[in-house]
Amino acid sequence: MVLTLENRSTASAPKHAIATPSVSRSLALLGGAAGFAVAFAAAYLLFVHTAGGQQVENGAVRNAQLGQSTSDWSQPLRQVDMIVLLGAASVSIVLISLVRRRFSLGVAGLIALAGPVVVSQILKLYVLERPDLGEHRVASHNSFPSGHVTAAMAVVVALAIVLPRRFRSFVLIAGGFGVAWVAAATVSLGWHRFSDTIGGCLLVAAFGFAVAAVLSRRHLARVAVTPAVIAAVAPLLFVLAGYAVLSTATSGPAQFVAAMVLGAVSAIALAGFQLWQLRRVVFDIP
């Protein structure tokens, strides 16, 4: 009888697995920040610097300024003092960082809060212009990006950074709905257009991802290339999708409703998108 002995080392040796291409988490976050910045610029150029963009948005503004479409639910925004809100958020960030003994995290949170708010005002008041493309029936001054939406989203992102990671999902999800109300209310009150609201969200996200990239640079975590590419490309797709949907509305009332809905949906979607990208990022540095 002939016995055949199996070569155990050969039989048990695992097959070579195909390595999944990956990049450092910090680099992926920087790519995401760049993607949000590109989408911000695209929103401005597409909605503000083209006749088609101005036309699809001005119908909503005219309808809101008639005074017949403003809903009661948006009126409380008139009573909100954004300076007080930002001041309270700043104090909260400092206190949280002191309680957690994370001074650097507090500084990062303040940068994520103040950075986009200051930049949005500089861009809106001194840098960006709204060209005259023949739409004379509405205010011609530049309103891009929305200061209210920028401030609201900045508070949410800053708190998501400075609070312990177990609170991050709740802050971004609940905060996203709060920002959605602010975005829709600014359109309802005739203060802003849809592009102004999504521009504010994109600006905050760019700052948030940049801050997250700096905070995560000490960690060696890596992410697959595909999610990193999605993070860089998806923000621009949000803008293009918003333009495509808003362009389907042909009457003033339809444009008004579409602008409100798009502003709210975009705020929630961008908050959720940030949660998807930031949920595993470690911010707990000394």
From TrEMBL:
Source domain of life: Bacteria
SMART domains according to UniProt: acidPPc
Residue ranges of domain Phosphatidic acid phosphatase type 2/haloperoxidase in the record: 105-212
Transmembrane region(s): 27-47, 82-99, 106-127, 147-163, 170-191, 197-216, 223-244, 256-276
Keywords for this protein: Membrane, Transmembrane, Transmembrane helix
Name of the protein in question: PAP2 superfamily protein
Organism: Amycolatopsis xylanica
The organism's taxonomic lineage, starting at the top: Bacteria, Bacillati, Actinomycetota, Actinomycetes, Pseudonocardiales
